[in-house]
Amino acid sequence: MNIKDAHSYLKMLIKKKKELEKRMEDLNKKKEKKQITEDEYLKEKKKIEREYIEVMDRLVQMKYITGQHDLFS
């Protein structure tokens, strides 16, 4: 992977992170409005959290590889 590919992948990961945060926000709103059951909420929440952890792990790795050490921006 060259540096250009790494930067493209990094941008994709940042976009995916934001999408997952939005999905979690939407899920919480559905729960508050009682549009989904507690079981549905927990199942979807767990799925989103797993994916989020994977994305964040890769994001940290790619920021290190590309020399961007501002890990939490």
Task: Please give the count of helices.
Answer: 2
Q: Which structural class do the helices and strands define?
A: mainly alpha
Separation of the first and last Cα atoms: 23 Å
Shape: elongated
- Rg, Cα atoms, Å: 15 Å
What does the average pLDDT come to?
A: 90
Largest sheet: none
The share of residues in helices is over 70%
Count all strands and give the number.
Answer: 0
Number of domains: 1
- pLDDT below 50 for ≥5 consecutive residues: which ranges? none
Q: Give the SSE string.
A: HH
Please indicate the percent range of residues in DSSP E strands (runs of 2 or more). Answer: under 5%
Overview of the molecule:
The chain is mainly α and 73 residues long. The protein contains 2 helices and no strands. Helices cover 79% and strands 0% of the residues.
Set out the fold topology.
Elements: H1 3-32, H2 38-65
Helix pairs in contact: 1-2
Features:
single chain; 73 residues; mainly alpha
Short description:
With 73 residues, this protein is mostly helical. The protein is built from 2 helices and no strands.
